[in-house]
Structures are given as structure tokens and as C-alpha cells.
Amino acid sequence: MTSSTLPATAVPTKTPERRPRVSPGARRFRRGLVKLPLNVLVAVILVITIYPLFWLVISSFKTNDEFINGDAFALPSSIAWDNYIEAWTTGNMGQYFTNSAFAVFPALALIIVLGTAAGFALEVMVWKGRNGVLLAFLVGIMVPGQMILLPLFTVYFQTGLSGTLWPLIITYTAIGLPLTVFMMATFFRAIPREVFEASTLDGATIIRSFFVIGFPMVRNGIFTIALVQFFFIWNDLLIALTFTNSSDLRTIQVGLLNFTGEFGATQYGPLFAAICINVFGTLVLYLVLNQRVMKGLTAGSVKG
Length: 304
Hints:
CATH class: Mainly Alpha
Structural class: mainly alpha
Shape: flat
CATH superfamily: MetI-like
Strand content: under 5%
CATH topology: MetI-like fold
Order of helices and strands: HHHHHHHHHHHHHH
Number of helices: 14
Largest sheet: none
CATH architecture: Orthogonal Bundle
Radius of gyration: 31 Å
């Protein structure tokens, strides 16, 4: 007797539903549509940021008559390059730049050297009372600079420092040190302590460890702090206006505030030209050093 083979029951298979094919152009259109609100927001921010600079540039090429009788937002009828020459010569901008340099760079050097050394001493060295000293520096950050101007003015006058740039150098150094010490202590905290212990075992003194090991390892942080402090000091108006009692000592910001033409009247074209020289000079400096600033800002964020 032979066994019969039963036919296998056919199971109906469900064919997958095919989606309509989307062309690459349609996909790009959809992605662009999703990003449209973000792109519009970025465009608005760019216009808000760039338009004042554009208006500043076109105003620097206008004549004084166009400022008085013309539309403030209209384009200049001609390119008046003489405004920049007059700003530098008649406006005495060269002297103002020199005064700013003599006040800013010595103060900046003192801030970096003293602030870095203090940050190293507070974070790397072990000694009694260092937490209290760090707290005192933090209190210095909380004190508004406007509160100390009158006492400082009295002290500078009684010590005979008035009429020089020393009040600016000393005040800028004192105001810039608290934040610098706090940030440098943070940067030194990111360096493994074993590095300094190994240098001590190799016979290096604490001063040698600071200059040979600590200082180079936080150079990005030093660079960032120096740039931040430079912009703050260079753009200062209140302190420079308080302690400069003659036109020969005016810094760039005080000079722009008291900018006058040849006969004592405000010349708007040369004034805007002088502002352009100041603004775009610092802007180019920041754009050139932008990557170093980003590295310095992230240098102290990770331990190790």
C-alpha cells in the first residue's frame, strides 16, 4: 500500500505596499521647508548685527552738510576719504591711540602676570588660608567699579599721581585681577596634579614648575583672558573719563566723546570715521584670534 502525499496548502502572501518614490528635488524642498524658520531667524539676527556696522561705514563717508540737511539713512553722494585723514590729524586720534596703548598694555601685562601667578598659588600650591584668599578675590568681582572711583580719585590726587596715566594703569589692574585670578585657578584645576608632583620629584623648584610647566599648559586660557581683558580696558569710558584731566591724556573712548573739528564744532563725518577706525580695528583683531579664544574657553572645562 502506497502512502499518498497530500498537497501542501498554499498560504497567501501579502505583497508589501510600495511607497511612492520621492524625487531628490522634493526631498531637498522638504528639508528646506523644515529649516525655513531657523534660516529666517538667522537672517534676522544677521541683519540686526550687520546693518548698524553698514550704517556706520556709509556715515563715515558723508559730508557734514549731508548729516544736517540730508536723510540720516541715505547713501553718501560721494566717497569722502578726507574724513579719515581729518579724524587722524585734526581729531588728534593718533595721540588718543598712543595714550590708550600706554594705559592698556602695561595694565594688561600686570593682570596676566599677577593673575596667573595668583591662580597657580591658589590652586596648585598647598598652604593654609588659600580658600579665604580665593574668596576675597571673588568678593572683588562683586564690588561695582563705580563705587571705588571717588575714593581712588582722592587717593590719586593726594599722592600726586593725577595728571599722569598711572591712575588708569593701577585702576585697570585692580579691577581686572579678581576675574583673572578666579579663571586662572579654574584652568590650573584642569591640569592633573601628578604633573607638578613629578616635576618636584625631578628636583624642580616651585618657580620653575610655574614657568616651565604650568604657564605653557594654560597658555590658551591666558590668551583668552588677555583678549577679554583687552576689550574691556580698551573700550572703557567711565574710568578714563574720571582720571584724565587734560586733553593730552585722553584715551580713544574719551577722545571720541569729546570729538570736535577745527573750529570747535562737531564734525560728524570725521567722527564716524574715527569710530570706524576703532570698531573695525578691534573687530579684525577678534576675527583673527577667534579660534584661539574658543580653545581657551574650553580648555578649563574638562579635567585631565
